[in-house]
Sequence to fold (230 residues):
Amino acid sequence: QQQVKQSPQSLIVQKGGISIINCAYENTAFDYFPWYQQFPGKGPALLIAIRPDVSEKKEGRFTISFNKSAKQFSLHIMDSQPGDSATYFCAAKLSGGYNKLIFGAGTRLAVHP
Amino acid sequence: DAGVIQSPRHEVTEMGQEVTLRCKPISGHDYLFWYRQTMMRGLELLIYFNNNVPIDDSGMPEDRFSAKMPNASFSTLKIQPSEPRDSAVYFCASSNHVPGTGNQPQHFGDGTRLSIL
Fold:
């Protein structure tokens, strides 16, 4: 019940295309859903995050869409660039208490020129 | 501001040896997390601390693993004795909680790549 399921495992997109990564969860007690971006040799870094009372959040080319009833959320990268090539992790945090995140398995994105 | 600092960046050692990984969190952060990342298992939370106190160590794989946080600016993750299956990248992350300001992100270090031969 504390799992976050992420798909696809890997994704290849042409430059200028839209990259879409999906995550699903079961536990309705999650109250915060961040996305992290990780480049080779680096630690994950927060990209964008959303709370369940919001259906969409956009920051530049990155958008989170959140469907509370379906318990799903997704990351859309518009106008994908080769520099976006990285591994992306969705995550979820249980409400209350401590700042513990449950991470998805990750999606390796490659944007080809 | 300095981010989370981990040392060493790379460690290669032989099976059976003791390994100590170190982490300096961001100053002022009251949460510290240790993660392990492998291709097979992804990013796993091993243990986390709040105000230097271990809160949840359920992710620690075996008794060979131990973690300490003697003060707010330093933590160690120790493996004794080490085994080849412990080979992974180990990350430390820190965050703070400020009441009324909502969720604060976890800031990750660049990790220690551990190879046990």
